[in-house]
Structures are given as C-alpha cells and as structure tokens.
From TrEMBL:
It comes from Peribacillus cavernae. GO terms for biological process: L-serine biosynthetic process. Keywords: Amino-acid biosynthesis, NAD, Oxidoreductase, Serine biosynthesis. The keyword Oxidoreductase applies. Catalyzes the reversible oxidation of 3-phospho-D-glycerate to 3-phosphonooxypyruvate, the first step of the phosphorylated L-serine biosynthesis pathway. Also catalyzes the reversible oxidation of 2-hydroxyglutarate to 2-oxoglutarate. It catalyses: (R)-2-hydroxyglutarate + NAD(+) = 2-oxoglutarate + NADH + H(+); (2R)-3-phosphoglycerate + NAD(+) = 3-phosphooxypyruvate + NADH + H(+). Belongs to the D-isomer specific 2-hydroxyacid dehydrogenase family. This is D-3-phosphoglycerate dehydrogenase. Residues 452-521 form the ACT domain. Its EC number is 1.1.1.95. The keyword NAD applies. GO terms for molecular function: NAD binding; phosphoglycerate dehydrogenase activity.
Length: 524
C-alpha cells in the first residue's frame, strides 16, 4: 500500500488515476495537519504554496517522489530531494496556455488601466480622461525567457500587431525564425521595448535579472509584467523606478513573499496585480493534476517518469529495452562492492556491442547505486548515485565500444580500491537472461541472483573436493557451482551459490583451507 499526501489544492477530478488505483491511499491535508504522520508517506503532491524544504524532506523518510502540479519547482529543494534519492517531477505544459492568456489579459489591463477604471466606476466616479491608455498595436514587446509560455505569448502578440523582441540565451536561431521573433541580448532588448514581460524560471541567475541598473536603460514610460516568479524583477528597484515614473506601470501576478502582506508595491496605483492566478483555470488545473497523477502512478508501478527534474528522461519503450541491462549493471556494481573490502576510488564501465544505441547514463547510475547500496544506510538509487560518488571522491568513467568479446553485448565493469581491483563482465541474452561471464579475467558463467561465494585458489587436485567436504559436513547445500581457470596449475576460481547466506563460521572454516588465495561472500 502506497500513501500519498496531497498538500495543496489540487483538482480532485485530475487525481482520478490515483483514486482508481488499488494499493494507493490518497490523503488531502496541509503539511501542518499531517505533521504526526509525515513519516508514512511515499509520495507528496504540491503546487506552489507548500515549501518542500530539506527539513520537511527529512521528516518524510519513506518519501520516494515529489510531484509538482505545475511548472516552477523553486518551492522545492531539488538538491536536497536528490541527495535523499527522491524523484522530483512536474507538469511542464499543462498550464502553458492559461498562463500565456493571463499574461496577455494583464498586458491589456495594464495598457488600458482596466483595474483602475473599474475601481473608479465602482466608487461612483466617471473619469474618462484620467484613464487614457496606449494601444498594443505597433508596440515592441520584449519577452525575457522564450520557453513554452514565452512562445505562446509571442504568437498572441503577433496577432495583435506587436513587434516581438526576445532574450533567451538558450533560444536556437531555428526556433526564433519559426516564431518570427527577433532574438537579442538583454542589453539590446531593454532600450527598444515598450513593454517587457518575464517568463524564466526563478534561479540564482534570474533572481534580480531586471533591476534598477539595467531597467534605467529602458525607455521612460516602459510597462513591465511579471507572471513568472516574484524576484525576477527586483521588487525594491521596481518600486523606486515606479516612483520616478521611469516605469509607467507594472502588472504582477507573483511576489517574492506570497501572500505579499505589507509589500509597498501594492500601495502604488501604477501597479496592478492578481494573486498568483496564472495557472488558475479549470483547464490548467485539470491538466496538471492529471499529468502528475499519471506520473506518480507510473513511478510507483516501477516504470520511468517522463518529466523528472532530477532523472534523465526516458520513454516507456526505451525503458523496457534498457531494463535487463539496468538490473544487470546494478548486480555487477553490487558484486564489485561486496568483493572489494576497502574504499573504492574508481568505477569504470564499458558498454560493448550493438545493444547500447541509447543514452547509457541511466545504466551507469544504476551501476553506481549497486556499488553503494550495500555500503550505505538510507536510500541509494539512480537519483542520488552520482552525487554519492562525487561526495566520496569516486571517479566515474563510461565508454561505449563495438567490442563485445564474442557476445552480442557485453558490459565490462572495473571497480578499483586502494589495493585491489575487480574486473567483472556481464551479458544479457534475450529469452535467456543475464549472466556474469568473467571475473578478474577468469571465464565463468553464472546468473547474478542469490547468495554466492567466490573463491580464488591454486588450480590443483583436492581444492574443490575439500570445499565440498567442509560444506557437506555441515549440511550446507551447494545450489550451483562454476569453475574457471586461465591455465592448468595456475590461479583458478570457483563461484558457488547457496540457498541461504553462508555463515561467518563456515566462511572462516573454508578460509583456513590450504591453496586458497582469497574468498568473497556476496548476496545479490
Ligand atoms: N504565474 C503562474 O501561475 C505561473 C508561472 N509560471 C512560471 O513561468 C516560468 C516559465 O514557464 P515555462 O515557459 O513553462 O518554462 P520553460 O522552461 O518552457 O521556459 C523557460 C525559459 O526561460 C529561459 N531561461 C532560463 N534562464 C534564463 C535566463 N537567465 N535568461 C533568459 N531566459 C532564461 C529558458 O531557456 C526557457 O526557454 C516557470 O518557471 C514558472 O516559474 C509557470 C506557470 C504558471
Ligand atoms: O506552475 C507554476 O509554476 C505556477 O506558478 C502555478 O502555481 P500554482 O500551482 O497555481 O500554485
């Protein structure tokens, strides 16, 4: 049974996929109301109101996925979620149209003083000349951040006869051409635009992106809009420029602190505002709720999510192809970790053969998580694998090769410690399964599942017999046994599997046998 906490107002109709699923309990409560039971939840669904801090994440040790029913994830401590192995997903396009339309409504309201005129009439006045506006037609609209919402605004602005200038360092010339917009640097755009609207995420780079220094280069009388995130236009600087009438007016859907109690921008007639309503339409709320409900369901069923912030995107079809290798490399990582009884400095992997015509980074993350899972408490998975390796100073190497050592595909992993190194090769054959085919250069073949003993010894008569006798005397049943050697009389290996893990006592007894170089135990 999975327990899901819905901490913000998410449209119930959109959550239908989760409500219909068996083995899922959905609980709608604010974080403060769920304080006592936070440790029980497997998934957390939020909008922008709940702040998902590291402190909250630490109170939720069972948490596996955080889903944002919307776009901006600036209310979620994504690095902390990643550190704790928690997947973060959002609903990137469910509210695009609604937010673009809202921005456009705000732009028209700003240019034509609609909110001010409305209040005036409601107060019994009829001051027509006080609210003379400006046309949008023929004006230059500066869009900062040309993603999904910026793109939809550009299309609408064109229909209104506006000239669209955009600044987005990640905008390709192809997309600029397609949208028929002029791509400029921010320095070029600011002095030219009559109206400027921001549509970037809030990041350390975009915080204060528009400030009094660069806004002073704008035309006097410029209009500004922020329907993205509070703080992209510096609020104190905006207040100063509005007082000076350098900025003629601003339309704000978002604020640094929400609700913006005591915010001095609210005192100005030239500021029009809405309470973070960009995504608040029936359609957008249904879309984002459905998107995240489906993502959470897919994730809890063990399938890949499409819109993760901290995992590479992978389709279901691709994941199905990748999955056998995904398990195999995890087991290879686990073998490496359990055999190396010392600190690990380096993990390298080569994907050989035809099978690896896809982004193998998810496999490498699975390998690293296999290495660390047996060594660390707490969640270790492909979300935090690279971070864990980095924090421990472990070097990761990944190569793709056409050489598969005679197999259709072959994954070669080397785990290096201070004194030792372990080389493991594995392959996957469709309808047959995965096999480890070489350990430390010894050819061998075994299914990497169960409890194993790896013995490296001198190749001479009696060694295998001695091992069998000691195990038999203690009634330990050998499930499978594989042997391998490089040359007669040299070093050889045995890999034995058991129904139960081998006891410490038995391990010690076997270790005392002559001609045994070293032994490793592992459970996969
Ligand atoms: N008011 C509301 O209710 C809503 C607000 N939003 C906000 O709008 C933002 C944008 O949403 P989408 O267009 O869907 O996201 P998006 O990811 O499609 O677009 C963001 C664009 O910003 C650009 N960008 C990033 N850093 C930049 C920088 N330093 N300078 C200039 N451009 C930069 C990116 O290249 C990208 O093209 C969201 O991050 C969210 O914070 C989104 C939905 C509703
Ligand atoms: O999707 C976004 O980024 C939004 O800002 C919408 O926020 P909300 O879900 O309405 O609190």
């Amino acid at each position: 049974m999975y327990r899901i906490l819905v901490a913000d107002a998410i449209k119930p109709e959109g959550l239908e996929p989760l409500l219909q699923a068996s083995e899922i309990e959905l609980i709608q409560k604010k974080i403060e109301e769920a304080e006592e039971s936070l440790h029980e939840f497997d998934a957390l669904l939020v909008r922008s109101a709940t702040k998902v801090t590291e402190e909250l994440i630490e109170k939720m040790p069972n948490l596996k996925i955080i889903a944002r029913a919307g776009v901006g994830v600036d209310n979620i401590d994504v690095p902390a979620a990643t550190k704790h192995g928690i997947v973060v997903v959002n609903a990137p396009d469910g509210n695009t149209i609604s937010t673009a339309e809202h921005t456009f409504a705000m732009m028209a309201a700003l240019a034509r003083h609609i909110p001010q005129g409305h209040s005036s009439v409601k107060n019994g006045e009829w001051k027509r000349s006080a609210f003379t506006g400006t046309e949008l037609y023929g004006k230059k609209l500066g869009i900062v951040g040309m993603g999904r919402i910026g793109g939809e605004i550009a299309k609408r602005a064109k229909v209104f006869g506006m000239d669209v200038l955009v600044f987005d360092p990640f905008l390709t010339s192809d997309r600029a051409k397609k949208l028929n917009v002029t791509s400029l640097s921010l320095e070029e755009l600011l002095p030219l635009a009559d109206i400027i609207t921001v549509h970037t995420p809030l990041t350390s780079e975009t915080k204060g992106l528009l400030n009094k220094d660069n806004l002073r280069t704008c035309k006097k009388g410029v209009y500004l809009l922020n329907c993205a995130r509070g703080g992209i236009i510096d609020e104190d600087d905006l207040y100063e420029l509005l007082l000076e009438n350098h900025v003629a007016g601003a339309a704000l859907d978002v604020f640094v602190e929400e609700p913006p109690a005591g915010n001095k921008l609210l005192e100005l007639d030239s500021v029009i505002t809405t309470p973070h309503l960009g995504a608040s339409t029936k359609e957008a709320q249904f879309n984002v709720a459905t998107q995240v409900a489906q993502e959470v369901l897919v994730f809890l069923e063990g399938n890949p999510v499409a819109n993760s912030i901290n995992l590479p995107a992978i389709s279901k079809e691709q994941f199905e192809k990748v999955q056998p290798y995904y398990q195999l490399v995890k087991q290879m990582g686990s073998i490496g970790s359990q055999c190396m009884k010392e600190g690990i400095n380096e993990i390298s992997v080569t994907y050989g053969g035809e099978a690896f015509h896809f982004d193998t980074s998810i496999l490498t993350k699975s390998l690293i998580s296999g290495v660390f899972k047996t060594r660390l408490d707490g969640p270790v998975n492909e979300v935090n694998a690279l971070l864990i390796a980095k924090e421990r100073g472990v070097t990761i190497g990944e190569k793709i090769s056409t050489d598969a050592y005679g197999y259709a595909n072959c994954i070669s992993v080397t785990v290096k410690g201070d004194n030792r190194q372990l080389d493991i090769r594995g392959t996957h054959v469709e309808n047959y399964g995965s096999r480890i085919v070489s350990l430390n250069g010894f050819n061998i073949e075994f299914l990497p599942e169960g409890n194993f003993l790896y013995i490296q010894h001198t190749d001479q008569p009696g060694v295998i017999g001695n091992v069998g006798r000691i195990l038999g005397d203690d009634e330990v049943n050998i499930a499978t046994m594989q042997v391998g050697r490089k040359q007669a009389g040299g070093e050889a290996i045995m890999v034995l599997s058991f129904d139960k893990p081998l006891s410490d006592e038995m391990f010690e007894k076997l270790n005392e046998l002559p001609d045994i170089s070293f032994m490793y135990r592992m459970s996969l």
